[in-house]
Amino acid sequence: MCLRLLLLLALCSAGCSAAALSLSLRGSWRIRSGNGSLELPGKVPGCVHSALFQQRLIQDPYYRFNNLKYRWIALDNWTYSKKFEIPFDISKWQKVNLVFEGIDTVTEVLLNNVSIGKTDNMFRRYSFDITHVIKAVNFIELHFQSAVIYARNRSKAHTCYKVPPKCPPPVQEGECHVNFIRKEQCSFSWDWGPSFPTQGIWKDVRIEAYDICHLDYFTFSPMYDNNIQEWNLKIDSSFHVVSSKPVLGQVVVSIPELQTQWTDSIELQHGKRTVKLFVKINKNITVKTWWPHGHGNQTGYNMTVLFKLDGGLSFERSAKVYFRTVELIEEPIEKSPGLSFYFKINGLPIFLKGSNWIPADSFQDRVTPALLPMNVKLFSRQWIIYCLFFFKCSAPLLAGLAAAVQHSWANWLRLLLQSAVDANMNTLRVWGGGIYEQDEFYEFCDELGIMVWQDFMFACALYPTDRDFLNSVRAEVTYQIRRLKSHPSIITWSGNNENEAALMMNWYNVQPSDLPTYINDYVTLYVKNIRKIVLTEDQTRPFITSSPTNGAKSIAEGWVSKNPYDTNFGDVHFYDYGSDCWNWKNFPKARFVSEYGYQSWPSFSTLEKVSSGEDWSYESKFSLHRQHHASGNYEMLQQATLHFKLPRSADQLRTFKDTLYLTQVMQAQCVKTETEFYRRSRSEIVDGKGQTMGALYWQLNDIWQAPSWSSLEYGGKWKMLHYFARHFFAPLLPVGFEDEDVFFIYGVSDLHSDCMVTLTVRVHTWSSLKPVCSETTKLFVMKAGESALLYKKPVPKLLNCNKCTRQSCVVTFYLSAGSQLLSPTNYHFLSSLKKAKGLHKANITAIISQQGNTFAFALETSAVAPFVWLDVGGIPGRFSDNGFLMTEKTRTVSFYPWKPTSKRELEQSFHVTSLTSIY
Ligand code: BMA
Hints:
With about 900 residues, this protein is α+β, with helices and mostly antiparallel strands. The chain is built from 19 helices and 50 strands. The termini are far apart. The model is unreliable at about 1-15 and about 370-410 (pLDDT under 50). Bound molecules: beta-D-mannopyranose (BMA). Beta-D-mannopyranose binds near residues 190, 433 and 497. Pathway: Glycan metabolism; N-glycan degradation. It is found in: Lysosome. It catalyses: Hydrolysis of terminal, non-reducing beta-D-mannose residues in beta-D-mannosides. Belongs to the glycosyl hydrolase 2 family.
């Protein structure tokens, strides 16, 4: 009885009106294995893996080699079932639908033993008409088919020609033919992630009963009319009208803060009907636009849309409306072949700085604020049940508890996105091999000012274009655009990840004679279908067919360019692990770099949770097993040895930890050099190349605890790279580099107005905590939104200071105005650190004190220390700075905890490493 009450209480909210009822089927279901040998309770939303773990039938799937041990789970065909009663008279309703917000993936759905539909796409919303099948007491079953077996069968059935790649590289230990199933592509493994092809009901499910008519979806887009300089709002609402007579009524749109109220009469005929409204925003009120982080506020306005229909029927929707324009500018550049490629927001060119987003977990239901084990989350859900049965909680208390659980889910995402903003990023690319993220992700991006480059979910593969596949994709794309297009954060749609490149650079060794077939498939899928739908559904943001692409040039070449990596057009992805990353000449001076990066290992405290003592060496089976990029572990050390000596402690565990640290040093320094090169290239054309207007490194986050290109570890801990990003993405940045024995400093500004600054350049010897030479320029103007040369000196002249040599000295520099520091203090190494002379072992101590919610770490060093790394193990939180070059005796750093901790706990976990302590 109580549980039934919960169902009703929880879901008679949005969508409910006088003539509609909604009943949630979330919560506890039964799950059965193919042959019935296993039967267990499981949560919805959720998946089989999570249910097995919650019932303690399996260990943490991320522990050690469990991804291989539990491969059988994805090869079985599971069944989800549930008995439920309808606590009202269902027969009275004209229409009853069963709505799934997301099913993962291939199922046949049966209600009371009647097949009501099939599913094959995890990115779609499914609605099944169950009017004639639903009863007072019901039994629902979802017969899942293994995604792995389904993909294999679809590939087999595609007899006319092969659609490569067949399987992922062996090092990924994954499953094959993922391109034949509309499911998270990386769930069959990736070069940074495990294979966990989940099965389950991964999003909400409910029954909707209604009479007369029902509001199926509601979406809107603000549009700016340049001619008359006015904002308008296009609102589309789609109804299903069951009444045979037309339904008359009125719609009222109101945005009080903009003193805008719009009323119109409507008439809805029987069937599926879309009401299109065009609302003019009151032009006497100044509309405050939405700006990306670092460029202004993220002002939004509350809007309500009320449909008042015949017979007292009404539907109301509230939403936040944000106003902004976005343009992708591809135009000729003086003294340069090719075209520009940059984004203008509200008419202003903006340098996109940020990273690439991948799914935060293989099991979407497992994401909690600090990625605590599932049972912690379960515990809070359990509380709701206890509360109901034993304490007879009131409805508001229940709602509060439910909100707390929901909140914790949302907080985890918020933490990752907040970390992006805290590192001065303004853009994330939602990469095409993962998922279209949940609503909260985009809501947070709207609120935080993170621009989203949204890929459609196709990656690193060719795809079939048979009728079923295309129909499924069309439904997916239409649904996702309608769900997401009102978010100002999304600034572009992109057809896929790297598929133009895969095709044209012949990654899969297709016969030249077969190429036209694959090109035809490519154009059919991304141009004739996806692009066509985008243009119909959303006229407010650009569409590019692929990333990387040459943009207009690719279009001119029939949608596929011979070389999609052409630096004179569009965006590029760039990876080079072998060349020296300290040498900027190895990087492409491109228009936009949407992927580039280097791998590193996560910290020991993160790895420790999923490994055991025998795993803790760089050469262990475990270290090899977690590395999914062929030769990745070797490449990291190779890159590191170009500039650093490798750790060589007699203690194996110490050496392992020091090696993890060194891979992070290498990664942070490499991505710093590369990003600074892109940022300083924004305003110049050299030999026809340049005007770089975007740098999105690969990749922001991790899906599990393993080596990868990420700057945030699984669990959210900042790697050294993330602390570096906070500096190299700073709005005002001095960038130092050398060319032909001359040292240059460029000043990069992302600001909207010019500012007066001075530049201070200091030379330090490794052997002393006092700078030996220091010079400060006169005040000069740093132009808004530009990069310009600030300082130039031949290296021998720079070294003409206290007998400096390249090996014995290091340069630091910063921008300031009076006593106000305006930029991070940047540095330039004049030689590899393995050759540095005078570096002493630094003894670094810290005195920790609590200051309100934060903790101060007062540091003192005995010597100059490069890459000072403060670590508090598994205590969640971040420092104000880390991985820095300590050239002064003392320095205070703050620690911001993400959950309550104490001075004592921090003191016990604290460990400091710097470059000299690993030798
Ligand atoms: C790019 C991405 C991903 C991959 C990364 C690192 O190709 O699009 O597919 O994980 O490089 O290899």
